[in-house]
Every structure is written in structure tokens, then in C-alpha cells.
Design brief:
172 residues, alpha+beta, four-stranded antiparallel β-sheet, 4 helices, flat, ACT-like_dom_sf, UPF0237/GcvR_regulator, ACT domain protein, ACT_dom
Length: 172
Amino acid sequence: MTQLLLTAVGADRAGLVSDLSEIVVNYDGNWLDSRMARLAGAFAGIVLIDIESSEVETLKVDLGGLEAKGLRVTVTDTTPQQDEGQAVLVVHLIGYDHPGIIHKVTATMARLGVTVDDLSTSLREAPMGDGILFEAQVQCRITNATTLDDLRSELESIATEIMVDIDLVDRS
């Protein structure tokens, strides 16, 4: 069996996920994990599937046929990784929206050798109509390159600079 990461992007319409999942199931593929969203009228999704190695090339051809229906799908081969012994953390931040928040946080993480597993962001009205709040939740892993205390210290030091509140929770 081979695991593949499918990335699908197109103008949003009813039936996109059904079209994609129909091709996967036609190859007896197993839909393992996915994230999908409608952003600014476009559909974006990532899907991890498991499929027989002998079926990969013909699956890719059939997925290419979805472009005629407005869905561009790219296929990436994956290699399962062992993440044993790495601390899993959730970082939550909230503050008034302005450019550069995610860059500053992820650049700090990258410099410390912290890897991002899942990142979600959103905007919402601040209480009493006092502007727009930016929220982010980052699930990440600390590799051997740093410690939880170092990450906490670095994030606390940039929180004031970028004017956000940052909470870090150890989920290991």
C-alpha cells in the first residue's frame, strides 16, 4: 500500500468532494485524513489516502480528469514518519488583526526547530465592535533542537512585540 497526499483547488461548487471521493473509492482507496475549506469563494482541500501501489499511476490520470470539472488535483507521495519522543504542543494566540502575526510566530518556531503539524486561523469581530480580532491555533512538535521552556520564553517575548496574547499547552 502507498499513502498519497492529494491537494485539490478549484472554484467552489456542489459535488467537488463527491467527485474526488468517487475516484478514490473506485480504486479501493482508503480516505485517511483530510482538511477542506471554502475560502473567498474557492475550494481548497488536502486529503491523505491509502491505495495499492500498482494503482497509483492510473489514479493520477483519473484525478487529472477532474480539471475539466474545475478541480485541479496534485498528488504527492508520502513517507510515514515516526514522531516518538517529541513533545506535542498547542499554541493559541489572539490579538487585533494586522499583517505579519503568523510570519513572526512561525519564523520563531522554525528558528527553534519546532515543526507545525496543523495551523488554523480566523478573524472575528472584537467585543463591542472594537475592531477585528485575529485568532490562530497551531499544533506543533518540539524536535531535539529546542526545549519547551525555550519555546515558551521566545513566544512570550514576541507576544508583546506583535501585540497578541499567546497560550501554550503541552499535549504530549
